[in-house]
User: Fold this.
Amino acid sequence: MTIYSKIKNIFNPLPENQKELGYKPNFYIKFLRSIAETLIFLLRLNSNNRLSVETQQLLNPTMDIKLPAGDKLTFRTGHGRLLWRAKTLFTEEPIIIKWIDTFKNNDCFYDIGANVGNYTLYAAKTKKIKVISFEPEINNLQLLYENIYLNRLTDFCFPIQIALSDSTKVEKFFIRSMSKGDAMHSIGRKAFYLKETPEMFTLDAMVMSLDDAIEIFHLPKPSKLKIDVDSNELKIITGASKTLAYVEEICIELDTSFGEHQIVMDTLKSQSFFIYKKEPISRKFNTTIANYIFNKKNK
Assistant:
């Protein structure tokens, strides 16, 4: 790491530079937070007086990200993680952006594990195609809705608050935190990547297989799938046996150190998919994870 990069990381620390999973603020961020906490205390901004309520209502932080064609995407911010997600649209997982750039105007894109909608928005904005987004975590779903609204993409986007799995049933939803834009939530168990089990919020949630969701809700058939669900990929692939017959390409995040993900690879290969591209994901705490693009052999 260069001196410039080290200095930049002090003033703009990124999750991928953390030595372990999870964000730990450095001295500079802690200093800024202490100033903010002092101002909030002095102005009583966490109380329910009229000044604090009006101040809270007027806060409207967003960030515009310029697109290559000269257009822009607007993202709701107001949280360090949301700011990071917006600023790293093109750099966090560039293989996904390049993949979306290859979509045709008659494609239907399923964004499974959409979070706050980075790739949902990019596909809808740049390709003007139908995007079905599955995101079960309520904080992320609310931000996904808001980002769709801010960008006037309601004609192209269909967000669905359903967790996908291998069958249709009720399961425990393990929520890592109630923090905005967070990840590592999981159905039926804690996420594989959470080595130490933190205190987690769990509740019952409705889950469906992708095959059932498409059949019951009469959803358009996907030609492109993006799957990023933090260790539940095998369940989703298992519940999509019919769907895989007409899917052309799949972008999926897999970890070769996780046994289930090897089964995912074998399953996709048995369905006539082959690895078309691979891009490692930069994480200091994990060097075996990557995004894979699978393509149909007969396409």
